[in-house]
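Here is a tokenized protein:
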Amino acid sequence: MNRREFSRLLTAAGVAGATDIAWGVTRAVGQTRGGTLNAIIQPEPPVLVTAINQQQPTLTLGGKIYEGLLRYGTDLKPMPGLAQSWTISPDARTYTFKLFPNITFHDGKPCTAEDVIFTCTKMLMETHPRARGTFQRVEKAEAPDPLTVVFTLKEPFAPFLSSFDCTTTPIQPKHIYDGSDYRNNPANARAIGTGPFKLKEWVRGSHVHLVRHEGYYRQGEPYLDEIIYRVIPDAASRSVALEKGTVQLTQWTDVEFFDVPRLKALPHLEMTTQGYELFAPHLWIELNNRIAPMNDKRFRQAVAHALDKTTMRNRLFFGLGKEATGPISSKTRFYDGDVKKYEYSLEKARALLDDMGLRAGAGGRRVTIKFLVVPFGEIWQRIAEFVRQSLGRVGIEVVLEGTDVAGWGQKVSNWEYEMTSNLLYQLGDPALGVSRTYVTSNIRKGVLFSNTQGYSNPEADKLWEAAAVATDDARRQELYSQVQKMVVEDVPVVWLIEQDYPTFYDKKLKNVITSGIGVHETFGAVQFG
């Protein structure tokens, strides 16, 4: 569907979706309870179970269906989630969480401490790359009563209390998953969680329809009757839908960056870049370190010198973001910018390639690399084309390969790629969101967003681990500064941009961004006002 056809559709009287799901907001002006929120989800997720898939569309939708023990403010301080309170022992090894009473899953079964323990110590250990790194540090997990969970750690782990948001630790129903093949459980199609919204239907290629969970434990929530996430593949059509008011919310790359200035000026819309604080998204070019010539750090350094990050930030992202200098974002704790710099220099890139023996042949070509394009919207295609043009200037021929969302995840997680782009979350602490990409122990075939590029440096491994268990912030900074210098020298991935994203929403919506995970929140408090 092109822009003209979509505009005609939006202005038609009584317009409906492919399965007669009405567009627009069904509410009275000023009403604070009830109504339908129409939002966009792009691209369509491969699955809705966030314990199994951690790609951005899955997490955005899954945040309404699944919950963690805690939530986090924009200052990243913990707030109640499924847990109403928590305590930490003086030796920083024992964490006790008290759950809210009367929590139920969407199938009506109670959610208890046993579900929490099963999720953290069994299911997520097999399916979730971030959670595995955290909960492998647990010596034992106990449930003294149905509403109490006690984790005892093998040794102190400074960011443990920051590990319980709904994207990292989505609590799953033990009665459905225990003893099953998690990834192939039939219940995955129903996506049963404890969140304020439950799945009514998912029409592939059209929409995901969520409705109020009547048994939700937080009194008065959710305010909305339903949320309908529309699948609109065409970028121009997504912008038109937001402009015309037929959708009231977009996030991440739903709106292409070149449309941001125009949409930002519209009087009925609010735009914010808040709500991504916990994630601190870090964009990079990922190179499979197992394959020649990517297994030579000189080649990776040459790629870093050949990419003009300033031009990329200004022309592709229209200034939304900051140039990255290494594995830790400046928005995350323990950042150190005093590392080796890879300034834009075609001369240095060519010299490194010459030093490797990759001499220019006919037409100036030195080597051909396949680039797997991320299928998450036009911006990712533009990134790939920018890389192709940039590396071509130094004799690296880049051939672009396309795939769908599930195919991209499968190829990257199974190491069946040469080069791609990626965007990972930092999660407020390097021990949670950063080290997982670089430690040898997290080279796990089949697990996306682990150390998929296959980088291994035993000395760096020791520094990452020492920093994770240190309890003094000054000591942690010292260790993280050391490992940043070491990893930047090796440049296992080419860091590009500390990404900012625009969230657009109708000004009639209230309480849209209430925490450091923004649009991934439950939306139980969102209302029309």
